[in-house]
Amino acid sequence: MSRVKNPITYDADENSDRSKLVFTRPSRTQQSFRDECDINNILRQFNVTGELPTGSVQPQYGDFSGITDYQSALNAVMAAQDSFLALPARIRAMFYNDPALFVEFASNEANKDEMKALGLLREETAQAVDTSPSEADKAEPAQ
Q1: How many angstroms separate the Cα of 65 from the Cα of each of 61, 62, 69?
Q2: What DSSP element (H or E) covers 135?
Q3: How many CB atoms lie within 10 A of CB 94?
Q4: Measured distance CA(45)–CA(57) in Å, rounded
Q5: Structure confidence by residue, pLDDT tens digits, 32-56
Q6: CA-based angle 80:83:84, to the nearest 5?
Q7: What would the DSSP string read from start to end of 57-125?
Q8: In terms of C-beta distances under 8 Å and separation of at least 24 residues, what long-range contacts does 104-112 make, across chains too?
Q9: What is the pTM of this model?
């Protein structure tokens, strides 16, 4: 038989004890930030200074001229993810299945020999191109 809730038969303390949550793990909340997060303190500071508090993380600036729009950036990320997933599982596991770790590894010139050993880098068959100007280029052009 179910009990009907009415002010006479309803016991708020009993229902609260029955439905309460018990946390056994230690809290991960850092109480040292209590005053910084209190909305009353934030509004009090705003009333005095007229400015909202700023975050501790500074804005980051960079050259993103190669990214024309969100869709092209998303496509580039997806293409990189697909390329990484095409690698054998044992190689992906070396980088904890994180494409960013693989890119960092592959970008380092010191890892060139190891990349060859893993089969990720083909043997260089072509000679390095000499970038110094030739004697013919140094001659003055005829006018």
Answers
A1: 12, 9, 10
A2: helix 135-138
A3: 15
A4: 20
A5: 888 888 999 999 989 998 888 776 6
A6: 85
A7: SPP-----TT--SHHHHHHHHHHHHHHHHTS-HHHHHHTTT-HHHHHHHHH-GGGHHHHHHHTSSPPP-
A8: none
A9: 0.41
